[in-house]
Amino acid sequence: MIVWVPMDSAAKAVGADEVAAAVLAEAEARGVTLDLRRNGARGMVWLEPLVEVEIDGLRHGFGPMSVADVPALFDDLSAHPRALGAVDELDWMRRQTRLTFARCGVIEPLSLAQYQAHGGLTGLRRTLDMAPAEVVAEVTASGLRGRGGAGFPTGIKWQTVHDAPGSRKYIVCNADEGDSGTFADRMIMEGDPFSLIEGMAIAGLAAGATKGFVYLRSEYPDAIAVMEQAVRIARAEGVLGPDVLGSGRAFDMEIRVGAGAYVCGEETSLLNSLEGRRGVVRAKPPLPALAGLFGCPTVVNNVISLATVPVILERGAQHYADFGLGRSRGTVTLQIAGNVARGGLFETAFGISLGDVVETLAGGTASGRPVKAAQVGGPLGAYMPREKFDTPLGYEEFDAAGGLVGHAGIVVFDDSADMLAMARFAMEFCAVESCGKCTPCRIGAVRGVETIDRIAQGDGAAIPLLTDLCETMKDGSLCALGGFTPYPVMSALTHFPEDFARSREAAE
Amino acid sequence: MTQPTAPAAPPDQAEIDAIIAAHAGLEGPLLPILHALQHAFGHVPQAAFDPLAEALRITKAELHGVISFYHDFREAPAGRQVLKICRAEACQAMGGAGLAEGVLRRLGLDWHGTTGDGAVTVEPVYCLGLCACAPAVMVDGRVHGRVDAARMDALLAEARA
After folding, report:
1. How far apart are CA A417 and CA B94, in angstroms?
2. Residues A37, A49: contact at Cβ < 8 Å?
3. Best exposed site among A137, A190, A292, A338 by fewest CB in 10 Å?
């Protein structure tokens, strides 16, 4: 009997380890020969722990499972109260276009053999037969843009590093996924770590770098453990090291752990942190592509950008570019979170509307109350009111609607949300996490909290002051922390003015 | 990389030196060394400052600047268990703020505080990547999602046992 129980931390957080132990114990008690496998997550977090029983090569899902539901897995499966049917046939899975996440949840994350059986290393092998400039051209042609939030074309960045003079260059993976509502990086690192390793190796060969670093946040202990093991395995199997897949060309990498500073998700802060300094933002120019880590030309890419590169090289740029909308090519890895009936990861071509995501995919709120707003793109993204739910997911489309796609995390709130409190939290968060370099961010965020408190106490005259402060922060901050905190604040104020119109009497 | 659980052992100079030496050859060795020291001792011990500054050829002021910049590093031991409660938006959308308030009120603590018996330190964390099974907490490196008041009670009882 083959049983799959995810080892993804979202599954573990809701009892997957306990369920796995119960499966083992039950099999032993019944004398059943069991092959227990730990996969990554499929992305249907509301069904976790999602146990799969493999029968004749077909995987049948059961979830959400509790320990009490385990014994029935050994009886008539069709009568199991948690039976969902074949996992690949579930609506959530069938509606997706899984390119980056094709293997996630399907294979055992640390099995290089299973990785290869599902197309892994094909892209890297092809890369080794190509000239570096050809690889860069392929990535450019795919239209892939930075999935960390900024949306900068990945191929252009690689080109700059490729062309930069210097014998020492680096590939740095930004795995400091600090935005609330985002977990795609964590999921792929826990569920398909070799895709990131392969993507970094391809980047290294293309840009002329022989060393890579993954800067992985300390809040992800499970992802750290999986990535460290995966790097060791890749090195032992010759995927990494002085002779990548026997090509005679070198690329190796290290996992580095962050230390709880949100701002280190900003690329120049991250580089300072890697160097062992305070994670203070650097002014640009110089671009990291020309003078990055230790002053050397450096590619800094997000996890999803890098983990998408192997499939682009495997299937060709055109295959990837054929998906998408306008200048947003390929797939977007939606992370649906917060107050939703069905939360999780959904990979689809750009172009799906926000409303479709919130109403159809997420199934509305978990609380059953009406949806009030969705914050898209993390804590620095705008709160989108229902009136804007027809906005299609695309970089330019969201920009035009006053928002940003960012890392494509979507956090849904029901009508009990107090948008003044959310605006205050945005300022408070900025004050806590500011690196301190830019005054409008360092001081402005503190003043922002105070100003919103005045509004909460019925001082309507403070509203223009808040607007003015947001302008200053936007124009006077080097990075997105100070520069984009005005997005959640101003979108809350603009779209939900009733939450800011407090009478003095009510406040008292 | 789990947060240390052991009560702080008295910092042993030989061990400090060994940790520094083991990482000194890395490119950008400071954060890995600080993590390793904190893992071994539960905090970054004062006794490590001089040898560390010397080994990396940085001033003690620079070292202090780095340690104090990052939320993770502490210069004094925490409680035997560190409870991190997510304060970020997705958890707020699912009642995370109320959950956190309840814990702090019951333990009579503010954020970063430690219970009088030294059992539990409560810290805020901004996102554990468990946004689709919110609200989420982490107890000594182990994650828990869909945490309601009853589950929180059980976790606290376990932590204080």
Report:
1. 10
2. no
3. A137
CATH class of the domain whose range is A113-321: alpha beta
Which of A256, A260, A414 lies nearest to residue B32, judging by beta carbons? A256
What type of residue sits at position A127?
A: T
| Pair (B100, B142) in one structural domain | yes
Q: What count of other Cβ atoms lies within 10 Å of the Cβ of residue B61?
A: 8
Query: Is B62 in the same domain as B99?
Result: no
DSSP characters for A59-91? EEEE-S--GGGSGGGGS-GGG-TTEEEEGGGSH
Give burial (CB, 10 Å; 0-12/13-18/19+) of A110.
middle
pLDDT in tens, A391-436: 999 989 999 999 999 999 999 999 999 999 999 999 999 999 999 9
Query: Taking CA atoms, what residue in A is nearest to B29?
Result: A276
Please enumerate in sequence order all residues whose Cβ is within 8 A of that of A388, keeping only pairs 6 or more positions apart, or say none: A354, A401, A402, A403, A495
Q: Among partner residues B70, B87, B136, which is closest to A13 by beta-carbon distance?
A: B136
Same domain? For B31 and B60 the reply is yes
Q: Which of A10, A177, A413 sits opposite B93 (nearest CB)?
A: A413
Give the residue extent of every domain in chain A: 2-94, 113-321, 327-413, 419-507
Query: In the CATH scheme, what is the code of domain A419-507?
Result: 1.20.1440.230
Distance (Å) from the alpha carbon of B95 to chain A's nearest alpha carbon: 9
Whether the predicted interface score ipTM is above 0.90: yes
In chain B, which stretches have pLDDT less than 70? 1-10
User: What residues of A are in contact with residue B146 (Cβ under 8 Å)?
Assistant: 13-14
Q: Which domain holds residue B23?
A: 13-69
